[in-house]
Amino acid sequence: MRPVSVGVCITLALASACMAQEHEWEVGAAAGFGFMHNATINNPTGSVSAGFDNRFAAGVVIGQELYQHFGGELRYTFRDNDLVLKGTGEKVNMDGDSHLVHYDLLVHAAGKSTRIRPFAAAGGGIRLFGGTGHEYAHQPFGDFALLTKTTQVKPLISVGGGVKVSVTSHATVRVDFRDYISPFPEKLFITTPGAKIHGWLNDLVPLVGVNYVF
Asked: In this predicted structure, what is the pLDDT of residue 22?
């Protein structure tokens, strides 16, 4: 076989391999709504629920398919989170938000070439809580805690799962469900003498998004 023919064959083979190579990266955006399971503040007279209201969520993600069934992704999520104290039919709140940054490992139930791919996810990161509203010297439940305009960073555990559905060779629709678990940001809720905070925060967040795959 002539050298030119050999070169052509090798070139065609390499081109075919590149065309057949499976996608490795994806970037996307998602939106949803979060449901908070809050902590409790107790004092000698009783208890109130302390934490954050149920509000919307939105974020972006960049991920990499490491192997046929394993991947990883870095995710940022913004949560509209009003600070809230509730109990005995009464409620007080303050404007607030939080910013979540975490890295998750994904385990897919099906390989890269499969159109529908359920997956489980787990990882960790940080969550920046912030109170953005007005502080008041006197407020309902002031004998338990006062809501404050400040920020605090807490560690974050992320667990959940979802499903990816390929709609084209470069577009994927995905549905995620995340449980974001973090210690309570006590600097945003200044307790009064004799009052104590009990429990962590669980933020249950379903998300729907679109990813570009390349």
From this structure: 54
183-214 tens-digit pLDDT: 999 999 999 999 999 999 999 999 999 999 99
Pairing type for strands 96-108 and 116-131 reads: antiparallel
CA 30 to chain centre: 10
Tens of pLDDT, residue by residue over 80-127, are: 999 999 998 899 999 999 999 999 999 999 998 899 999 999 999 999
Q: Which residues pair with 196 in a beta bridge?
A: 42
Q: How far is the CA of 139 from the CAs of 12, 67, 100, 204, in angstroms? A: 75, 54, 29, 28
Alpha helices (H) along 60-210: none
User: Which residue in 63, 81, 58, 55 sits closest to 24, CA to CA?
Assistant: 63
Predicted TM-score (pTM) of the model is 0.86
Choose among 55, 26, 31: nearest CA to 119: 26
122 in Cβ contact with 107 (< 8 Å):
no
Q: Distance from CA of residue 162 to its chain's centroid?
A: 13
Give the separation between CA 77 and CA 61, rounded to whole angstroms: 9
